[in-house]
């Protein structure tokens, strides 16, 4: 017998492959669908599309000498069902987790998944920038300036001389270091713009199953247009140059109802997380 769980049926009972996150027939009301996050039912519901829901299969008979495990009130049973008449109208059963979604019901990515995706992209782009700097000789000049800066600090500390702040800043902000900063900024914008316009996600987001979508249009609607695809990374870099604003931009999804950064709000985008695809054996 196949372990595949067709869309619209309850998640698998314990001991079988867990159903992937997605929309399934609501175990409370068969006329609608409820979102299963891969672990438990959430509060997110929507009207069911298509034919009437199929009845859930009966639980398997208990082996001889054993009784069928009792289903606790308010908790999903072996087939995701609830006791008849539960929950009372207007109340959500315990254990339900509210997951923020787009207006059309697609779960939004958490701040932690977005941070992980950004870290992956950062390390990938940093590796490319380091290769460019090494090939062009910029890395050697930056290293030389760093050694001169360290020597100046040692001189100030050992002689007790008054530090020259302007000279110290000049040793750090050399033409070579500023050139590398410009290369990093341009590379990030070009990389992000091309990936978002073609795939709707950067490599880091693809690894984390994240996708950038137009505001409140997460259900595979219109693709991210070129204006949003390029405006989003440009605004990310511009905000990062403003003291404190760049940090606020990064942290904004932690308290924003729509889980948007400031550059998301300017570009009119949201980041959703795709459910894990099943790995049937």
UniProtKB/TrEMBL annotation:
It is a multi-pass membrane protein. It comes from the Bacteria. This is RDD family protein. It is found in: Cell membrane. Keywords: Cell membrane, Membrane, Transmembrane, Transmembrane helix. Residues 1-28, 46-85 are annotated as: Disordered. It holds the Pfam family DUF2510. InterPro entries: DUF2510, Pra-immunoreactive, RDD. Residues 22-54 form the DUF2510 domain. The keyword Transmembrane helix applies. Residues 108-268 form the RDD domain. Residues 68-83 have a biased composition (Low complexity). The chain crosses the membrane at residues 115-140, 178-196, 234-255. It comes from Ammonicoccus fulvus. The lineage of its organism: Bacteria, Bacillati, Actinomycetota, Actinomycetes, Propionibacteriales.
